[in-house]
Amino acid sequence: MDVVEQALAEHVRSRAGFVTEAASHLMEAGGKRFRPLLVLLAAEAGSHPDSDEVVTAACVVELTHLASLYHDDVMDEAQLRRGAVSANARWDNHVAILTGDFLFSKSSELTAELGADAVRIQAQTFTKLVEGQILETVQPGPDEDPLAHYLDVVAGKTGSLIATSARYGARFGGAAPEVEEALTAYGEIVGSAFQLSDDILDIASDHDVSGKTPGTDLREGVPTLPVLMARASADPADARLLELLDGDLTDDARHAEALALLRRHPALEQARAYVVAQAAEAKDRLSVVPDGPVRQALEAFADVVATRSS
Questions:
Q1: What is the count of structural domains for the chain?
Q2: What is the pTM of this model?
Q3: DSSP H stretches of helix in 114-159
Q4: Closest to 265 measured CA to CA, from 226, 228, 209, 300
Q5: How far is CA 280 from CA 1, 52, 150, 223, 301, in A?
Q6: Do 251 and 274 meet the contact criterion of CB atoms below 8 Å apart?
């Protein structure tokens, strides 16, 4: 990861100082580096995990992710990202959008170094990612299940790139084709579970432990797994909660009441059980990976995603 960090710092450099500053802004703010970490971990299932191509692939997925964050913050009119002022708030929407484009371009340049097949995989991944982002802005149709619609959004926005992270690691680390396919499926499931665990943290987290402000998505009316599961309840006792969810949650008192009701609602445990089941399904895909430290690390990785507190 130290090598990847150093490479990322070089890849966001531009001949123009301002572009370098803007492109470095979110990267220097930190982040979990979940995607490049999975590239490196998946590469350990192959015969040459230390290849230069593995590091390049790790940079590709992180730059793609960073680029999407710049665009996300414009769409969401976000003021903060990773505890720092967002690029659109620090400069403006134009700078944020074009910086995201710059990072997508740098990611594409690096992908070309990995060969034509990697370019195809990256293009397909980007298609799914953007489709997920577009679907997020569209309300589900009258005959469409809102939860199924949301899970589609998560699979596109988050699962697709994390699946590619695992695929790239396996491929450029020299893993067998059946291991690459298994790790790709594992990555897609773990990637979606990663977002869904964030949904649970939004309701259940303690700020002192997670560092997150509880109920941020709830206040902004962003659909999340526990909320959608609570909305599906037919229990008459949920009338007050549904009334609050349909109303203005920017009001502090209404927001606090809705948050308290959700924390006591069976939907929260239902959501937790769903994410734990997703982690178990991801681990089942690892049966073709030889037993040993690599498989154990991948299994532990899935468990951490499902049960994390930050």
A1: 2
A2: 0.90
A3: 116-136, 146-154
A4: 226
A5: 27, 32, 21, 24, 11
A6: no
Regarding whether 119 and 4 lie in a shared domain, the answer is: yes
| Rounded CA separation 87/101 (Å) | 13
CA 186 to CA 212: how far, in whole Å?
Answer: 27
d(CA 248, CA 265): 20
- Residue carrying the six token digits 């979110």: 26
Q: Are 33 and 1 in contact (CB under 8 A)?
A: yes
Domain that holds residue 168: 1-175
Provide the residue type at 122 as one letter: Q
Q: How far apart are CA 32 and CA 210, in angstroms?
A: 13
pLDDT along the chain (310 residues), means of 10: 92 82 72 91 95 97 90 65 64 78 92 97 95 90 91 94 97 96 96 93 70 76 92 90 92 94 95 95 95 94 82
- Contact yes or no for 212/203 (Cβ under 8 A): no
Residues 168 and 28 in one domain: yes
C-beta separation of 193 from 278 below 8 A: yes
Here the tokens at position 150 are 């949301």
Query: What spatial distance separates the first Cα and last Cα of the chain, rounded to whole Å?
Result: 20
Pair 208, 170 in one domain: no
Rounded Cα–Cα distance for residues 32 and 35 (Å): 8
Burial of 96 (0-12, 13-18, 19+ CB in 10 A): buried
Phi and psi torsions of 85, nearest 5°: -60, 130
Q: Which of 142, 175, 208 is the last residue of a domain?
A: 175
